[in-house]
């Protein structure tokens, strides 16, 4: 009798163990509904989405080892995976992102990137996923707005929806995501102003907002983001002055403001800072170039072309530690070009279309 009980106990344990180790039927059903809204005609990446256990050998799906709930979906249309190498092509997928994805309540990362043909909108319910840390939808044809209550995703560290057709404004609630480190909204159709309290995103290291229709002024609160290393606001319709405080940021290395409607003068702080790539070209900036270059000035690229700058080229620029690429063309500068580095390796194209610059590499004064 004891052996029978032992046998039954072991059998029940084995059954419960196998059940626990597979994903819940509800997660499997959500994944299949997500798959049903998409069409991938060339690579067959969804061919592996069969069987009862979505935690094992389902392409792009990973589960939490303890709870066996779906934790990660990682589907990239540009990948070094053997599936792509054998096909000798990048991925292409059409369809839309089904709201069924929101039933995966333990989802930590959701990447559906570079499929070129996925359209529709970002499901609003995605903001109800409490554990979501990565949302990466770059390189599709997704339209509509960024969900208004995106700020509910308080654990989010990466928000990347670049290279889509997203419109509307940047939701004010985005500044509630205190854990956000990487924000990429480039190449969309966003309009309106950058939230004034953008500086609340204290953990942000990259803020890439270029190629949109953003207007208004650059929020001075950005300078409070002490981790920010890369700020790209280029090719928008931003206006007003450049906040002087941007030049006093401790780790800002790339500042791209080109192709806007920015006016005012160049803050002196920008030229004697940690910024090594500074692009202010194609704006309406006036006044003289501040004569404040020094040993801290180290520029791999300094582009001030296509503005309304006047006066001489500052002599202090020869005291900069390094100036790689320099473009001062299409302004109203006048006077002799300083001799020596960095001017001894620059071409005439760096200085053309000014009022009266002279000296090498232009004509002699």
TrEMBL record:
Cite the Pfam families for this sequence: LRR_1, LRRNT_2
Instruction: Tell me the ranges covered by the Leucine-rich repeat-containing N-terminal plant-type domain, including all copies.
Output: 25-64
Q: Subcellular location, in the record's words?
A: Membrane
Reading the lineage from the top rank, the first entry is Eukaryota
Keyword Signal recorded: yes
Query: One cellular component GO annotation, for this chain's record?
Result: membrane
Q: Can the keyword Lyase be found in this entry's annotation?
A: no
**Record's signal peptide:** 1-22
Which keywords are on file for this protein? Glycoprotein, Leucine-rich repeat, Membrane, Repeat, Signal
> SUPFAM superfamilies recorded for this chain?
L domain-like (SSF52058)
Q: Which residues form a coiled coil?
A: none
Q: What is this protein called?
A: Leucine-rich repeat-containing N-terminal plant-type domain-containing protein
């Amino acid at each position: 009798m004891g052996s029978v009980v032992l046998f039954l106990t072991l059998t029940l344990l084995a059954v419960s163990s196998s059940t626990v180790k597979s994903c819940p039927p509800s997660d499997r059903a959500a994944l299949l509904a997500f798959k049903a809204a998409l069409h991938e005609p060339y690579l067959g990446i969804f061919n592996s989405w069969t069987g009862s256990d979505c935690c094992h050998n389902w392409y792009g799906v990973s589960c939490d080892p303890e709870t066996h709930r779906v934790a990660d979906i990682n589907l990239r249309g540009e990948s070094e995976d053997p599936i792509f190498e054998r096909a000798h092509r990048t991925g292409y997928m059409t369809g839309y992102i089904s709201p069924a994805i929101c039933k995966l309540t333990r989802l930590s990362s959701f990447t559906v990137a570079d499929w070129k043909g996925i359209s529709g909108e970002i499901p609003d319910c995605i903001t109800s996923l409490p554990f979501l840390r990565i949302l990466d939808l770059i390189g599709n044809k997704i339209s509509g707005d960024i969900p208004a209550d995106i700020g509910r995703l308080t654990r989010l560290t990466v928000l990347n929806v670049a290279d889509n057709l997203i419109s509307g404004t940047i939701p004010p609630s985005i500044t509630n995501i205190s854990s956000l480190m990487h924000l990429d909204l480039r190449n969309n159709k966003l309009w309106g102003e950058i939230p004034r309290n953008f500086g609340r995103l204290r953990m942000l290291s990259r803020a890439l907002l270029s190629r949109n229709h953003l207007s208004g002024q650059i929020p001075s609160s950005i300078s409070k983001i002490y981790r920010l290393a890369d700020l790209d606001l280029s090719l928008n319709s931003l206006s007003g002055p450049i906040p002087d405080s941007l030049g006093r940021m401790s780790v800002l290395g790339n500042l791209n403001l080109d192709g806007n409607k920015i006016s005012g003068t160049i803050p002196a702080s920008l030229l004697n800072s940690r910024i090594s790539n500074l692009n202010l070209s194609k704006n309406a900036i006036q006044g003289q170039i501040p004569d404040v270059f020094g040993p801290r000035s180290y520029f791999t690229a300094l582009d001030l072309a296509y503005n309304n700058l006047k006066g001489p080229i500052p002599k202090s620029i020869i005291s900069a530690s390094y100036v790689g690429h320099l473009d001062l063309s299409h302004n109203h500068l006048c006077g002799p070009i300083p001799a020596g580095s960095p001017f001894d390796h620059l071409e005439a194209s760096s200085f053309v279309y000014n009022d009266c610059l002279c000296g090498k590499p232009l004509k002699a004064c």
